[in-house]
Amino acid sequence: MHKYRLLTDATRFLFRNKKKPVVIFIRIIQYVKRDVFLRPFISLWVKLSQSLFHLAKFQPISFEPEGVFIHANNNLFYCYDTELEGGLAGMEYGGLWESQELALILENTPINGTVLDIGACFGSFTFPLANEKHAYVHAFEPGKKAFSLLTKNYQKNNLPGITLINSAVGDKMGTVRLSMIDYMGNYIVSKNKLENTDSAPMMTVDLYVRQKKLKSVDSIKCDVEGSEYSVLQGAKKTIETFSPVVLVEIHDELLDRQNASADKIFDFFEIRGYTYRRITEDNEVKTPLADHAAELSQGHNFFFYKSKK
After folding, report:
1. Angle, helix 21-31 to helix 2-16, in steps of 10 degrees
2. Predicted confidence (pLDDT) at residue 304 exceeds the cutoff of 70
3. Sheet holding 168-169: strands in order across?
4. How far apart are CA 244 and CA 115, in angstroms?
5. Residue 85 pLDDT > 70, yes or no?
């Protein structure tokens, strides 16, 4: 029946355009291009892609006008940037970025809690917290390209309770310059350095909390490529008032370029009555050691919390 209808349509077309050979020629070219070459090629490409994704154990993907999205195994979507050498840090293969760190902050964030995600990047903490804990997440990301990815993921996942802020966070208000060599690892540089840098506004946690009239802050994640101590200095009142759990990256080499150190961060929490757990490079949660240098040789992420009495 389908072949008969196709033959009838072709006959009618030829009869109606018998005095228009150019029209007939163009339509034949279009048919050959679409049905003889393009359609079989697309079909072959789809079959080959499915086989490759299956062999590589790649997560499902969707092609959309805004970009290519990975459907991660936590049922969230993340835009896949082909320029990013590290991809999505294993999420495209079914893993979760910093899974142990994420598990700790999820476990210690109450339902409908308030979270500050400082250095949100593409939202590997922002969206699971909003999705699983229905948390009100305030996600800070200063880098323009990283913020663009974060925005695409926000629009795709369509989760309530998320506020995106395109700003750096530190110990004072103002404007800073960010290194743009690795846009997923932007860090603050000297204001005199213009090459491969971009400007960004900077705010403090305390001022933001006051302006937004936040009544609680339950959790803070801080990964800002060496400016962690500066962030803490600008968050003193918030931390002292609400005693949130705080996940912090502590990397002496990165802190050194901001005239800070790991000892300063440990001291900051110790005088405020915090203890901590550390996450090793082997993704294990460990208790503190007497020697911070030994701890830092095993991993750079630390989860600070106040002991329940």
Report:
1. 150
2. yes
3. 168-169, 197-203, 174-179, 188-189
4. 9
5. no
- Please list, in sequence order, all residues whose beta carbon lies within 8 angstroms of the beta carbon of residue 70, skipping any fewer than 6 positions away: 59, 60, 61, 77, 78, 79, 80, 88, 91, 92
In whole angstroms, what separates CA 99 from the centre of its chain? 14
Quote the radius of gyration of the chain (alpha carbons, Å): 26
Q: Which residue has the tokens 């918030």?
A: 238
Instruction: State the pLDDT at residue 167.
Output: 95
Which range has highest mean pLDDT (27-36, 62-71, 263-272)?
263-272
Q: Which residues pair with 247 in a beta bridge?
A: 221, 303
Residue 228, both tokens:
């962690």
204 compared with 95, residue with greater pLDDT:
204
Spatial contact of 91 and 124, defined as CB atoms under 8 Å apart: yes
Q: Which residues on adjacent β-strands are paired with residue 222? A: 118, 248
Given the structure tokens 């006959």, which residue do they identify?
A: 11
Tell me 166's DSSP state.
Answer: -
Whole-model pTM over 0.90: no
List, in sequence order, every residue forming a beta bridge with 115; answer none if it has no partner: 137, 219
- C-beta of residue 182 within 8 angstroms of C-beta of residue 216: no
In whole angstroms, give the CA distance from residue 144 to residue 75: 26
Instruction: Give the sign of the dihedral formed by CA 209, CA 211, CA 214, CA 215.
Output: positive
For 138-181, the pLDDT digits (tens) are: 999 998 888 999 999 999 999 999 999 999 999 999 998 887 76
Assess contact for 258 and 265: CB atoms under 8 A: no
* Separation of alpha carbons 280 and 6, rounded Å: 66
Within a 10 A sphere around the Cβ of 33, how many other Cβ atoms?
11
